[in-house]
Design a protein that fits this description.
By secondary structure, the protein is α/β, with parallel strands linked by helices. 28% of the residues lie in helices and 20% in strands. The protein has helices at 7-14, 22-32, 49-61, 106-111, 123-128, 151-155, 182-189, 219-234, 294-314; strands at 2-5, 34-37, 71-72, 98-100, 116-118, 139-143, 162-166, 199-204, 207-210, 213-216, 239-244, 253-256, 260-264, 271-272, 278-279, 285-290, 321-323. It is elongated, with a radius of gyration of 21 Å. The two termini are 25 Å apart.
Length: 332
């Protein structure tokens, strides 16, 4: 992962060394990111004496024991001025990078909730959004039976451009339960978004067996209802795509966003009965992982590669891909 850092932001970051969160945040920044400074290293010598002293202290640990991560200077990126759609042309790697920027329109871009973008003075808070349950850990295990709703997902969500859901049985339930399961789940993942079109791609089966009958998934209804619900929250309609899984491919239930991955041993349809929420799952655990960990990031990249293979294989099938067919991580 890359971190793009402007001069004003780096000075602000160095001035926060006395903050109780600095040591942990700095460990994550050094161990998880290639640091892409948008200015020349010599500019530090023009800073205040305290900043220069803090930079010398910081540099002692910023050049060793970093698992292959590096510091690059004079990086001319992202193009300026930034704007709220700057990310539209970004590669997958850039969509999982973080941006500590100064200047025109940075706040506007940050407020879209698409990427981890922070103005001067927000550097530590930006890095802390990679935490899980307010701790920098690769993965945390949650007991499903201790959950009563999807707030655990929402509390550990991060800004994102894309939400990719892989679950064969996501809609294999009464339509009355969509509201507290699939719809609520996706809404929690979108909590940072504001006036921007999130790309939602759902890999699932076209029907399911209930008793002796085969029940078709009402994709047209789901798309309409989900767009209406999220439009009220975000301000614009999301892009929704359904990829019909061929048979029992991709058994594991997984959700991937730009910076986090959520996995479950059972389908993401845990709850029922609305006012008196109770479990309708046989699963025991859900896991949340942060892509700032190299192993998690590699798993996420491999996962995207596998999903692209499914898309490439089903493109020719009748109605096998439905909806807007938009994603920054997958090609349709």
């Amino acid at each position: 992962m890359n971190a793009y850092i402007d001069f004003a932001n780096f000075c602000s970051y160095l001035s926060s060394m006395s903050n109780q969160d600095f040591i942990k945040c700095n460990e994550v920044l050094l161990n998880a990111f290639n640091l892409c400074f948008t200015f020349d290293k010599s500019e530090i010598q023009k800073a205040k004496k305290e900043i220069k002293r803090n930079f010398d202290l910081w540099l002692r640990t910023a050049t060793k024991n970093r698992n292959g991560k590096k510091n690059d200077w004079n990086i001319n990126f992202p193009p300026r001025p930034v704007h709220k759609s700057s990310h539209i042309s970004f590669s997958k790697d850039l969509l999982s990078s973080i941006y500590m920027l100064d200047g025109e329109n940075v706040k506007e871009w940050a407020e879209t909730g698409c990427l981890l973008v922070g103005e001067k003075g927000t550097e530590l808070d930006l890095i802390k959004k990679l935490q899980i349950s307010k701790t920098f850990i690769p993965t945390k295990q949650y007991r499903i039976r201790s959950m009563s709703d999807w707030s655990t997902i929402g509390d550990n969500s991060t800004p994102c451009t894309d939400i990719i859901v892989v679950d064969q049985y996501l809609f294999s339930q009464s339509e009355l339960e969509y509201e507290i399961n699939s719809y609520s789940l996706i809404e929690q993942l979108c909590k940072w978004a504001k006036s921007t079109a999130i790309n939602i791609v759902i890999f699932t089966l076209k029907d399911y067996k209930e008793g002796d009958q085969r029940q078709n998934i009402p994709f047209v209804t789901i798309e309409r209802q989900l767009k209406q619900k999220l439009s009220q929250r975000i301000g614009v309609e999301p892009n929704i795509t359904f990829v019909i899984l061929p048979g029992q491919e991709q058994h594991d239930r997984t959700i991937l966003t730009n910076y986090k991955m959520y996995t479950s041993g059972d389908s993401f349809k845990y709850f029922k009965d609305g006012t008196n929420v109770s479990l309708c799952t046989h699963g025991e655990w859900m896991y949340i992982s942060s892509l700032h960990d190299d192993d998690v990031l590699q798993n996420a990249q491999d996962f995207i590669h596998d999903l692209q293979g499914i898309i490439d294989n089903v493109k020719g099938g009748l109605m096998s891909i439905r909806g807007d067919r938009k994603s920054f991580f997958l090609n349709f």
